[in-house]
Amino acid sequence: MSEQNEVREIRINPIVPSESVLVATARSMRPKKAEELAPRDTRKHVETCPFCRGNEHKTPPVILSWPPAGDWQIRMVENLYPVLGDDREQANFNFGLQQTIDGYGRHEVIIDHHEHGIAVHEMSESHLAALFGVYQTRMRQLFESDERLKYVLIFKNFGPAAGASIPHTHSQVIAMPVVPENVEAEVRNSAMHFAKHHHCIFCALIDEVLTFEATIYDRSSGAVRRKINVGQYVVERGEKFIAIKPFASRYEWEVHILPLQHQADFLDVRGEDLADLARVMKRTMARLDAVIGGAQYNFFLHSVPHDAQRQAHAPSYHWHLEICPRTSIPTGFELGSGLFVNTINPEQAAEKLRAVEL
Ligand SMILES: [Zn+2]
Ligand SMILES: [Zn+2]
Ligand SMILES: [Zn+2]
Questions:
Q1: FRET pair for 133, CA 20 to 30 Å: which of 43, 75, 224, 258?
Q2: CB within 5 A of ion ligand 1: which residues?
């Protein structure tokens, strides 16, 4: 890497400024090499796996299956070890500074595909569209089932490096009575931005990313001081959705997918648009897999919370999917400082991802 391309700067997340990233490419802060990560399970069928076809009797009770008749492609079951559950008879014990909120909620598992070790980029577009449809259906059902539920977090851990405890490809759904702090921070800050500038900050980011080039001139001489190729952050573009490499990426290969038109709630994506979302997702994941060489990742959906402020936040919040491939393990510096360290220049990472031939 040439001297010119070296970056050493703290980048401020435009949405949540307290979440900054140290981009330091010159010397790796991370001694961990990719090959030290445990490989993922790529088998198609595993006789002993409770999530494989033929072992349906080994899973907790089924919540829904898709398609409803015939061999299932996607299957949703209760979680055997839920982190949140039913109301408890005994009230919470609060003492002094030891305050708690009841762990009421739902924790469920979506078996994303009948093939055991299939990765998202290996699934067909129609299958992925159906999977996003299942996400929507369950999210809607959960919100309608209990008005105490304020947020439904849908996420996926794929591969041991991303903390997947069950090798069979699956997503998880956690419905909670509180709004998670990082969603709350995005919602709060984007509402503040809206109050000041009367536009959605996520829409503004998309506009910026779609601006191909900006030139900064010297005020006195008129000479060109710097040319910024802003379009360099686009990884994939569909008709309705866009995949962006964030300027302040916390993870080396982090990519976000957003609807091009303003939309606060994932539940508002129309059925016919899920195909485009699936296409952008599949192509983005294929790029990541090609560049990283077998991507292991977490992804999660951020959508407007269904709390009392839901309508008020609809113009300022913009739902999105954050994809965070795990190529290294956080170090003491990161845990101690709260500063994410990214050792790959996000502009160059985006360039590499775009260059993949699909
Ligand atoms: Zn399996
Ligand atoms: Zn927007
Ligand atoms: Zn987010």
A1: 43
A2: 46, 49, 51-52, 116, 168
CA of 302 to the centre of ligand 3 (A): 5
Print burial letters for 22-42: b (CB count within 10 Å at least 16), e (below 16): bbbbeeeebeeeeeebeebbe
What is the Å distance from ligand 1's center to 157 Cα?
15
Residue type at position 39: P
Structure tokens at 332: 């003491």
Task: Please tell me the pTM assigned to this model.
Answer: 0.91
Q: Could you give the count of Cα atoms lying within 13 Å of 177 in the half-sphere of its Cβ?
A: 13
Q: Judging by DSSP bridges, how do beta strands 106-111 and 170-176 pair with one another?
A: antiparallel
CA of 251 relative to ligand 1 center, distance in Å: 29
Element of type H or E holding 226: strand 224-228
Contacting residues for 111 by C-beta, under 8 A, at least 6 apart: 51, 74, 75, 76, 77, 168, 169, 170
Reading the block at residue 72, the tokens are 């299932």
String of DSSP letters for 40-105: PP--S--TT-TTSTT-GGGSSPEEEEESSSSS-SEEEEE-SS-SSBSPPSSPP--BTTB-----B-
Successive 10-residue mean pLDDT values, the chain, 358 residues: 65 88 72 62 93 93 91 92 72 67 85 96 97 97 93 94 88 94 96 97 93 84 82 91 94 96 98 98 97 91 96 98 89 84 90 94
The rounded distance, in Å, linking the Cα atoms of 118 and 308 is: 39
Q: CB of 280 within 8 A of CB of 228?
A: no
Distance from Cα 220 to the centre of ligand 1, integer Å: 66
How much distance in Å is there from the Cα of 215 to the middle of ligand 2? Answer: 26
- Region of residue 227 (left: phi > 0; alpha: psi -120 to 50; beta: else): beta
Could you tell me the distance, in angstroms and rounded to a whole number, from the CA of residue 40 to the centre of ligand 1? 13
- Which residue in this structure is represented by tokens 């129609």? 126
Q: Which ligand has an atom closest to residue 186 CA?
A: 3
